[in-house]
Each structure stands twice: as C-alpha cells, then as structure tokens.
Design goal:
Blueprint lengths: L1 H15 L4 H61 L2 H43 L27
Helix pairs in contact: 1-2, 2-3
C-alpha cells in the first residue's frame, strides 16, 4: 500500500520535472498502469451489464418456452374436442409466442455483439500508437503515387 502511494507521488512529481530518463520512464509506466486499470474497469463493467441483461433475457425465454408448452397442450385438447375457434385462438397465441422468442434471440445476439464491440473499442483505445512506414521506404516508382498516409492514391 505504501509502495503504491510512493509510486503515485513519484509519478506526480516526475510529471512536473520530466527531464530525467528515470522520471520519463516512471511517467510512462504510470500511464501504462492507469490505461490497463481503466481497460480492466471498462471491460468488467461491460461484461457485468451484458451478463445481467443476458440472464434477464434467458428468464424471459424460459417463460416463453413454458407458455408455448402449455399452448401446445391446449391446442391438442382443442383439436381433439373439435373446438375449432379455440384451436384458432391457441394457434394465434403460439404464433405470438414464437415471434417473442425470435425477438429475444435477436436481442441476445445484439447484446453480445454490442458488448464485444465495446470491449474491442476499449482495447483499441489503450493500444500504443504504431508508426506508419515512411514514404521514403517505398520503392522508387511508388513514391510519387502515395498520399499522406503512405497509402497508394
């Protein structure tokens, strides 16, 4: 605990006088730790929220499965007894249940995709910047045909 406070104080002091190599290294290390800690916190928050929503959707899906089983039994009984109006009503209820189940499945995919995208974005935010190859590294004939980013025009 004391070491962490000392390190935080040292990094804070090094920010004010970053001329020495040790101070620059300490600031860089502190920034890297802070970035990884922030990444961990954001990733954990996204995962917890997604799991909570997925559990809720799973409960709703199980309820729909139970309702569907009940409706199938009712449909069988209505058909057996020749109750055509009741059978039509139960069929419409089954269609509604199937639509709701499909919507829940789509929402599950959307929650999973959004969580994956948010985590991926968080990872990209803390990745170190990579330098693009200089235009001078390109073969002689390609130098004139390259734009600012080094990509061919």
């Amino acid at each position: 605990m004391a070491a962490g406070l000392f390190a935080a104080a040292f990094v804070g002091a090094a920010r004010h006088d970053p001329d020495s190599a040790v101070a620059r290294a300490a600031v860089d290390a502190g920034d890297a730790v802070r970035a990884r800690t922030g990444l961990f916190a954001r990733t954990t928050a996204v995962q917890v929220a997604a799991r909570r929503r997925l559990r809720q959707l799973e409960r709703e899906r199980r309820r729909l499965d139970t309702d569907r089983e009940t409706m199938i039994r009712e449909l069988g009984e209505a058909v057996y007894r020749g109750l055509d109006q009741r059978a039509d009503y139960v069929r419409s209820q089954l269609a509604w249940i199937d639509e709701q189940a499909a919507a829940k499945a789509a929402e599950v995919r959307a929650v999973e995709d959004e969580a994956h995208e948010r985590i991926e974005r968080a990872h990209l935010e803390v990745q170190p910047t990579e330098a693009a190859p200089a235009v001078a590294d390109a073969p002689q004939g390609e130098r004139a045909t390259r734009g600012r980013s080094g990509e061919p025009k």
